[in-house]
Specification:
The complex is a heterodimer of chains A (371) and B (232). Chain A is an alpha/beta fold and 371 residues long. In chain A, 42% of the residues lie in helices and 17% in strands. Chain A contains 13 helices and twelve strands. In chain A, α2 packs across α3, α8 crosses α9 and α11 packs across α12. Chain B has 232 residues and is α/β, with parallel strands linked by helices. Helices cover 46% and strands 14% of the residues of chain B. Chain B is built from ten helices and eight strands. In chain B, α6 links the parallel β5 and β6. The longest helix of chain B is centred in the last third of the chain and has 16 residues. Chain B is globular and about 40 Å long. Classes of the chains: A alpha/beta (371), B alpha/beta (232). At the A-B interface, α1, α7 and β9 of A face α2, α4 and β5 of B.
């Protein structure tokens, strides 16, 4: 039984992949029990990625609150995605896999994957929707420079959903030589658990940092949710602190948790945007990283259990928050965490922590085009 | 006598096409219930699914298509689909309504042995399956085992997968007495013959869909060419 999140999760994939998932599960459990693995990841995090990332007080953005930003935008490659890519690259080496396949939406996970493949000398293939390649051009160019092969996906919505399907089809075809380096806490077990653990460093560091500067835990913690990896990593640090409100912010046009229903997409049972027949619906968001009709199964469970709540932000609200943070704090956030920033003023909470999951350089063209 | 299974996508013409396939010598017809994100399928079946969804072939329409096909042919009919449709329709209700509409069993491409064991269905095994998983699939399967001939998605390939011989041999040992039908990548009469030498039957999907583009007559002729090769 692999549905560990209150009936969500599972391994809804073709049989061809099951032995590889069993092998991955065993390698992951062995790695977790191995102090050498931990030590190697900690060393890479410190000397290569730039951990710990700082906590920044955003006084001018939210003068009525004590707002802190967890600065994952300052991580190497400019987003939290590297935490996961580094860990899985080390895992792939332990599995003896020399070829890496990944999907990417905004391009941040693709860049992180291309980066770790360059660092470890692994072959790298990234699937990306043709529409996303258009709106995230700088990241496409970065991946090419890093030596990755970026393959456009020209069918369906031409975004992250189709890119993920194609990456999984590539993995089915090349499973004996290839590790699928999934970018979010989605997919068949054990991926949601692996990605959560590799991103949990965000929550662990944040908790200690807030305690150090404020002497108490935050009232509320916010993070944007597409697939949900930065949010699950941040929430992981506070799940046991019952007094801390956990809030996930989805794109209003891609609210898998807010307006979705139980379905099966990309290997797991979760809350998805789908019609009454189970056909997956199109998501719509200005933010390529949130433009996905599924979400990690643990988020569906946290929603149902009431431990976290999930709200939405529109394209315009995210754009406004992006501009406001840029002008008040001199920090250009990515469009994805701008969704979380857009909901800060609505909270009653006074001491608030937001995961600033990535920087906005990749979004400049999209933002400038909107005036 | 080797079994010849032909895959067709549900659609307005499917009953007529199924009849043509049976006239050509098909012993079993798989009926695709289309899904928007079919992970196990290559471009031909993926595009056929997109087209079928565009024609309104949702679950209820597919069940009606199944019943209409049942009225025209007397070979076993087996819906082939994905978990998301069953999740939405209700797992038990789907199995019940499919049987009521004339299905002999069910294939769910993204539901490996061990997940939802209570749902009776034809299990798929692949060259990557361990002997232990072959045994599990053999115990759980409903009537026959679907041997996926290659590590990959559906769609015609040139030549039969070299992985089939080893898989068929291991499956025989792990699931004695269970009929083995080989599918994925089989398109020519020669491939079908070669696969049938190793297994008890073959499944032809993408190539049959391409033949069906030419109408019932073209499909009948194509299926007959496979039948002739199998009976030689």
């Amino acid at each position: 039984m692999t549905e560990t999140y209150g009936g969500y999760g599972g391994r809804y994939v073709p049989e061809t992949l099951i032995p590889a998932l069993d092998e991955l599960t065993a390698a992951w459990e062995a790695a977790l029990a191995d102090e050498g693995f931990r030590a190697e990841l900690d060393e890479l995090a410190r000397t290569y990625a730039g951990r710990p990332t700082p906590l920044t007080r955003a006084e001018r953005f939210a003068p009525a609150k004590r707002l802190y930003l967890k600065r994952e935008d300052l991580l190497h490659t400019g987003a939290h995605k590297l935490n996961n890519a580094l860990g899985q690259a080390v895992l792939a080496r332990r599995l003896g896999k020399r070829r890496i396949v990944a999907e990417t939406g905004a391009g941040q996970h693709g860049v992180a994957t291309a980066t770790v493949c360059a660092r470890f000398g692994l072959e790298c293939v990234v699937y990306m929707g043709a529409e996303d390649m258009r709106r995230q051009r700088p990241n496409v160019e970065r991946m090419g420079l890093l030596g990755a092969e970026v393959l456009p996906v020209e069918f369906g919505t031409k975004t992250l959903k189709e890119a993920t399907s194609e990456a999984i089809r590539d993995w089915i075809t090349n499973v004996e030589t290839t590790h699928y380096l999934i970018g979010s806490c989605v997919g068949p077990a054990p991926y949601p658990a692996i990605v959560r653990e590799l991103q949990a460093v965000i929550g662990r560091e944040s908790r200690a940092q807030v305690l150090e500067v404020e002497g108490r835990l935050p009232d509320a913690v916010l993070a944007c949710v597409g697939g949900g990896s930065n949010a699950i990593g941040m929430f992981a640090g506070f799940l046991d602190d019952a007094g801390v409100e956990l809030v996930g912010v989805e794109a209003a046009g891609a609210a898998s948790l807010g307006t979705g229903r139980t379905g099966v997409l990309h290997g797991s049972r979760s809350s998805v945007l789908a019609d009454e027949d189970g056909q997956i619906a199109d998501a719509h968001s200005i933010s390529a990283g949130l433009d996905y009709p599924g979400v990690g199964p643990e988020h569906a469970h946290l929603r149902d259990s009431g431990r976290a709540r999930y709200v939405g932000a529109t394209d315009d609200e995210a754009l406004d928050a992006l501009r406001r943070l840029t002008r008040t704090e001199g920090i250009i956030p990515a469009l994805e965490p701008a969704h979380a920033l857009a909901r800060v003023d609505d909270l009653d909470a006074e001491l608030v922590l937001v995961c600033l999951s990535g920087r906005g350089d990749k979004d400049l063209a999209e933002v400038l085009a909107r005036g | 006598m080797k079994t010849l299974a032909i895959y067709l996508m549900s659609g307005p013409d499917t009953p007529e096409l199924a009849e043509a396939a049976v006239e050509g010598g098909a012993d079993l017809v798989e009926l695709g219930f289309p899904f928007s994100d079919p992970l196990a399928d290559g471009p031909v079946i993926r595009r056929a699914a997109e087209r079928a969804l565009g024609q309104g072939m949702r679950t209820k329409a597919c069940l009606e298509c199944l019943a209409a096909t049942r009225a025209r042919v007397d070979v076993p009919l087996v819906p082939m689909t994905y978990s998301s449709l069953l999740e939405a329709y209700g797992w038990d209700r789907f199995a019940h309504d499919a049987r009521a509409a004339g299905a002999a069993s069910l294939i769910v491409a993204d539901l490996p042995a061990g997940e939802r064991p209570e749902l009776r269905r034809v299990q798929l095994v692949a060259p990557t399956s361990t002997d232990e998983r072959l045994r599990l699939a053999g115990e759980l399967t409903d009537g026959w085992l679907y041997l996926v001939t290659l590590t990959g998605t559906t769609g015609a390939r040139t030549g039969l997968s070299a992985a089939l011989a080893g898989l068929a041999e291991r499956a025989r040992a792990a699931a004695p007495g269970v009929p083995l039908y080989a599918g994925f990548g089989i398109s020519t009469p020669a491939d079908a013959r070669a696969a049938a030498d190793l297994a008890d039957g073959v499944v032809v999907g993408s190539a049959a869909l391409e033949a069906a583009e030419g109408g019932p007559g073209a499909l009948r002729d194509y299926v007959r060419s496979l039948r002739t090769a199998l009976d030689d």
